[in-house]
Design goal:
The structure is a single chain. By secondary structure, the protein is mainly alpha-helical. The chain has 2 domains: about 80 residues, Orthogonal Bundle (Helix Hairpins); about 30 residues, no CATH class. The protein contains 6 helices and no strands.
Amino acid sequence: MSDPFKSLHDAMNQFAAERDWDQFHSPKNLAMALTVEAAELQECFQWLTEAQAKDLDEQQLAAVRDEIADVQLYLIRLAGKLEVDIEAACWAKMKKNADKYPADLVKGSAKKYTHYQD
């Protein structure tokens, strides 16, 4: 695992071990928990207008920070279980996205890449 996440990965492993939670942290369960946390992040923005979502008060922003952290921590734990280097995977995906969405073809458009294929 790359340096940006190694210390968090180690801390997550210790946290789970101290609580005997490793037995529950299968890749399937972690992926499911991740979706729950992502939904909780969405809930922070539910019913807000676009303008309100960009101008959160401190209490709202604190809730968003907590949910972002929960999502990231579950991703780190899942990646550790599957021996996925998050940083390397992200760089590889950025390359794939650049190939799928050439800037000269997609600039200013929200269309899916399949609409740009020959």
